[in-house]
Amino acid sequence: DISTCNNNTKIINDTLNNMISSGDILLIPGNNNQIFWFNGGIYVYDLQNITIQIDGTISYTDDRDKWPRDNSGHVLECMYFENINGITFTSNKGDIIKGLIDGNGKRWWGAIDYLIYAENRPRLLHIHNSQNILIENIYFKNSPYWNVWLEDVKNVEIHHSNVSARRDNIDYHDLYDITAFNTDGFDVAGENVYIHDCEIWNQDDCIAVKPQSA
C-alpha cells in the first residue's frame, strides 16, 4: 500500500543521506525474488564512493494522486542524485538477468493522459552535476517518463543495462505501443560518457545527447 511505499522511500533517503559512509554497499536483496515498493522522491546529495547493489526489484507505485510534488506542482523524480562522485549502480544477478527498477509507468502513459499530464511525469533515474559513475547490469522498465537523465556529468560508463517501455508484448511499434510517450532510454549531457552493450526498446529516443547547462 502507499504507506509502505512512503516508509521505504523515507528509509532509503535517510540511509543514503545520513547513515552511509565512503566504501559502503547499499544492498537491495534478491533472495526469493524480493520486491521492494517505493514512492517517488528518493533524493540524494553529496554521495562519495558508494555501491548501490540491486539484486532484488525496486518497484514504484502507480498511484499518480499520491505521488509527491514540489510547491509548484511538479512531480518529484523516482530517484535523483546530485553532486555524487565514484558511485556504482550494479547487480550481482549479472548481465543476463540484471537488477530491476520498475517504474510501473503505464498509468502515466496514453494519449488522453498525455493531454492531462503532458511531461509532468517522473524519470526513473536523474543524476546531476556528478562524475565517475558506473551503471551496469541494471534493467530499467516502464518508466513514466525518461528512463535515465545524466545532466552535467563527467566520466560515466553504462554497460549491459537494458531499457524497456512497452504497452504490449508484440515485437514492433503499433499505435497503442507508441502512446508510451517520451520514454527516452539514456539522455546525456556531459563529457566522457561511454554507453555500450545495452538493449533499448522504447517509444522515443534510445540515446539522446543534450547540451550541458553548466
Outline the structure in words.
There is one protein chain. The chain has 214 residues and is mostly beta strands. The protein has three helices and 15 strands. The chain has helices at residues 2-19, 94-97, 111-117; strands at residues 25-28, 35-38, 42-45, 51-54, 57-60, 79-82, 85-90, 99-102, 125-136, 138-141, 148-159, 162-164, 186-196, 200-201, 207-209. Strands 1, 3, 4, 6, 7, 9, 11, 13 and 15 form a nine-stranded parallel beta sheet that branches. The chain has a six-stranded parallel beta sheet with strand order 2-5-8-10-12-14. It is globular and about 45 Å long. The model has no long low-confidence stretch (mean pLDDT 93).
List keywords for this structure.
214 residues; mainly beta; 9-stranded parallel sheet; 6-stranded parallel sheet; 3 helices; 15 strands; 14% helix; globular
What's the arrangement of secondary structure elements?
Blueprint: H1 2-19, E1 25-28, E2 35-38, E3 42-45, E4 51-54, E5 57-60, E6 79-82, E7 85-90, H2 94-97, E8 99-102, H3 111-117, E9 125-136, E10 138-141, E11 148-159, E12 162-164, E13 186-196, E14 200-201, E15 207-209
Parallel strand pairs: 1-4, 2-5, 3-6, 4-7, 5-8, 6-9, 7-9, 8-10, 9-11, 10-12, 11-13, 12-14, 13-15
